[in-house]
Write a structure and sequence with these properties.
By secondary structure, the protein is an alpha+beta fold. It has 3 helices and 13 strands, in the order ββαβββαββαββββββ. 2-oxoglutaric acid binds next to strand 6, strand 8, strand 9, strand 12 and strand 13.
Length: 205
């Protein structure tokens, strides 16, 4: 469903079985040898998610990508799993947008998790100019996703992202402001075994 030029909400993109596999993988990654952490951002605030970057690390203190986590523990960023890359590229292709994803930001939101409204604009100038999309996949509790325009003051729509939904924004929508105002605790599908929410955003640097 194209909700604005270049922005697509794909409800129920993943089956329950696919969500289970992805949730198990996300949990293992975020609790792994290079674990998820709560980023501190420039200005001194802390984010309200637990984050793990794959493929390239996003440094929240300088808003740049790098190969090791110099803002946290100095560890090398884990690779982007090949099956993640294929999944993201396939979602982008399903809405007619070319993507060769080389990084993923995996966020875990607990019941109090949220993310302020922002633009994703730290990828390369070439990628932004080409309009390569951000591909988002959600698993677990539903979220109130805010989707605005390309200026901060533009009106914002609230969209409920459920477990298994994909959301893609590229081309003319690539620099739209977006965020998550709240999580709806306890709304993950019964049987998924997730409390809270995983969100993966894939990008091409
Ligand atoms: O959790 C979401 O749905 C959005 C995540 C997001 O905005 C980001 O990672 O830049």
């Amino acid at each position: 469903m194209e909700i604005a030029p270049g922005a697509f909400h794909l409800p129920g993109y993943l089956s329950l079985e696919e969500q289970k596999v992805l949730a198990t993988r996300c949990q293992a990654l975020i609790d792994g040898r290079v674990p998820g952490y709560v980023p501190r951002v420039r200005g001194g605030g802390v984010m309200h998610v637990r984050m793990l970057c794959l493929g390239r690390h996003w440094n929240g203190l300088i808003y740049k990508y790098e190969s090791s986590r110099s803002d946290f523990d100095g560890l090398a960023v884990p690779p982007l799993p090949e099956e993640f890359r294929r999944l993201a590229n396939g979602i982008a292709a399903s809405v007619g947008m070319p993507l060769d994803a080389d990084l993923c930001i995996l966020n875990y939101y607990d019941a109090a998790g949220r993310m302020g409204v922002h633009q994703d604009k730290d990828e390369s100038d070439a990628s932004l100019a080409a309009g390569h999309p951000v591909v988002s996949l959600s698993v677990g509790d539903a979220a109130r996703f805010l989707f605005g325009g390309v200026r901060r003051r533009d009106p914002v729509d609230a969209i409920r992202l459920e477990s298994g939904d994909a959301f893609v924004f590229g081309g003319p929508a690539r620099l739209r402001f977006h965020g998550v105002s709240r999580i709806a605790p306890g709304t993950a599908p019964p049987g998924l075994g997730v409390a809270g929410r995983f969100n993966l955003t894939f990008r091409q640097y």
